[in-house]
Model the fold of this input.
Amino acid sequence: MTSGFLLCLPSYLLSPLSTVENRECANCHISETPLWRRDRDGSYLCNACGLYTKMNGQQRPLQKTKKRSNTPKKTGQVCANCKTTTTTLWRRNPTNSETVCNACGLYQKLHGVRETTSRLHEHERTAITA
Done:
């Protein structure tokens, strides 16, 4: 049974939006998107490129940005407590201004004492022995 309403709609409304005119994004050259936009020249842009252009005033870059590594930005840094050289964040010990790794700094902030050597980074020791 067909509805009389569907017969009244133009054919371009019945087909998926991405295949209406075989459009292609002028920036990234994809052909399927939930929404098509236009740039200042009237060229078609996919939704992602159109939003990026609208927000930043320039075309969306096609290359992915490199992820930040977990290496220390300051070379030669060593934690005064556990002697590690790699951490996501270097902290200052508030009592004596020593440089400590993130784990040692958070432990001291939470417990009010330096982390003992027997408990130092238990997760690192178990990962090494496993």
Observations:
- Residues 47-56 form the longest helix (10 residues).
- The chain has five helices and four strands.
- Residues 93 and 99 are 6 Å apart (CA to CA).
- Helices lie at 4-8, 11-14, 47-56, 102-111, 122-129.
